[in-house]
Design brief:
It is a single chain. This protein is of the alpha/beta class. The protein contains eight helices and eleven strands. The strands form three sheets. A five-stranded parallel sheet has the order 2-1-3-4-5, sandwiched between helices. Strands 6-7-8-9 form a four-stranded antiparallel sheet, with no helix packed on it. Strand 10 and strand 11 form a beta hairpin. Helix 2 packs parallel to helix 3. The chain is elongated. 27% of the residues are buried.
């Protein structure tokens, strides 16, 4: 899962980024509202954590603009203790949840996990497609009850394709999700990794879980 953390307090932002990445998330960061809105609008993000008190553009404005643009991704706002008006305004603007500062990291992690689970429209952390099972909480994949050894990169690729399984995901979109924004991307590398993922998920060629649509991209096709 790819998260966007919009927080102007450098020490807090660095600490949260480190802990979230240790939990297996891919974390992008922004120190002000303008940059945060740009990243949330231009890149594929699964969830946004946004502080309401931001420079350049307030967190409330970020939430309002994302919702006005039709973005439905989960948004968790961070608020100062006692500012109940800000909580109400944030929720009315379209945020899904809020957390009051100061907070302990486990509470943030639990809120994020709950929002992501809800956005996946799954009643549990595990989704099953025939003999293939994906545990989003543990970030594990099993095929016929046997664990599939995926790299973190391969897992993120599979997770995104599964979440977006109702549509075709272009190579550009998949690259934007997987790679840092300023990193050079090689489409040949992406094709090799897709091929490797296919072989791990479908060693005998009976499932064909990932479809390639020439000139358009990839689609996860198991139901």
């Amino acid at each position: 899962m790819r998260l966007l953390l919009i927080e102007d307090e450098a020490a807090l932002r660095s600490s949260l980024k480190r802990q979230l990445e240790a939990d297996g998330y891919r974390v992008d960061e922004a120190a002000d509202g303008e940059d945060g809105l740009y990243q949330a609008s231009e890149y594929p993000v699964d969830l946004v954590v946004v502080d309401l008190g931001l420079p350049k553009l307030s967190g409330l404005s970020v939430v309002e603009k994302l919702r006005a643009d039709g973005r439905t991704l989960p948004i968790l706002i961070l608020t100062a203790r006692g500012s109940w008006q800000d909580k109400v305004k944030g929720l009315e603007a379209g945020a899904d949840d809020y957390l009051v500062k100061p907070f302990e990291y486990p509470e943030l992690a639990a809120r994020i996990k709950a929002l992501l689970r809800r956005s996946l429209k799954a009643s549990s952390d595990v989704m099953r497609f025939g003999t293939l099972a994906i545990d989003f909480s543990a970030q594990q994949v099993r095929l016929e009850q046997v664990a599939v050894d995926l790299t973190a990169f391969e897992y993120r690729m599979l997770e995104y394709l599964v979440r977006e399984r109702a549509r075709v995901v272009s190579k550009q979109e998949l690259s934007d999700y997987l790679y840092p924004h300023d990193e050079d991307r090689d489409s040949n590398v992406l094709e090799v990794l897709i091929g490797r993922l296919r072989r791990k998920l479908d060693p005998d060629g009976s499932l064909a879980p990932i479809e390639t649509l020439r000139g358009r991209g990839y689609r996860f096709v198991l139901a």
